Hints:
Blueprint: E1 4-6, E2 18-23, E3 26-29, E4 36-37, H1 38-45, E5 52-57, E6 60-66, E7 76-79, H2 80-86, H3 92-107, E8 119-120, E9 127-129, E10 134-136, E11 141-150, E12 153-159, E13 170-173, H4 180-192, E14 195-207, E15 212-223, E16 233-239, H5 253-271
Parallel strand pairs: 2-6, 11-15
Antiparallel strand pairs: 1-5, 2-3, 2-4, 3-7, 5-6, 8-9, 9-10, 11-12, 11-13, 12-16, 14-15
Amino acid sequence: MSQWxxxxxxxxxxxxxxxxxxxDGQVVRPTDGWLHAWSALEPLARRVPGPVxxxxxxxxxxxxxxxxxxxxxxxxTVPLRDALVLMDAAPAELLSTGSQxxxxxxxxxxxxxxxxxxxxxxxERARWCDACQTxxxxxxxxxxxxxxxxxxRLLLAxxxxxxxxxxxxxxxFVEPGESIEAAVAREAKEETGLDVTNIRYxxxxxxxxxxxxxxxxxxxxxxxxxxxxxxxxxxxxxxxPGALPPVPPLTTISGRLIRSMEExxxxxxxxN
Length: 272
């Protein structure tokens, strides 16, 4: 059972409450974990906007604050992506929620309709424009990510946009007016030249770069030859279970989907 529970309240932190500190896309860590006691961080956070409540960790309130413009001294910093992808002990759900809430909190300090300064909504997680009576809620961008299966093999691809040497999955944003199943078929065709069928939902994961909701699918190969979209995919190929190149860890939705498809293929081979 997860020890993280996202939520919302108008309250401000007490001395013993936890605070997640972020600076320029990096997590600012204390020496003994990922969260600071508010009493220890308050002198640093006093000079920046926030903090904003994000939920509970082990039933203890957690707030997030952006300290990008403060002197963080000797605190250790870890890039958020490295924490989520490379560090198994990182509280991924907490870090993801805190980062996304902070990003939204600072992007909506001014009303996108009339330009007036916004403030906390009196009853819910939103920024409120009193001038034009408009609430501004956290944004979510739905994205699909898919394992394509061809007989006893699965398609893995290496992105041309990341420095991490992982082979992962085909992914992309859902377009306005498009179903998520249609997005799976379109992204597969655009990025690989392949047609897919039997598209079926598996699982989801929030992904804070900056505010995505990843929707994971399985799909079956239906035809076509690999023709890669070079600005997205550096290389791609079909792989059998047990003979995969480096893939993302189980802290990521891509890692879990890949492992799940491996198990599915092995189970189908065992039953034949």
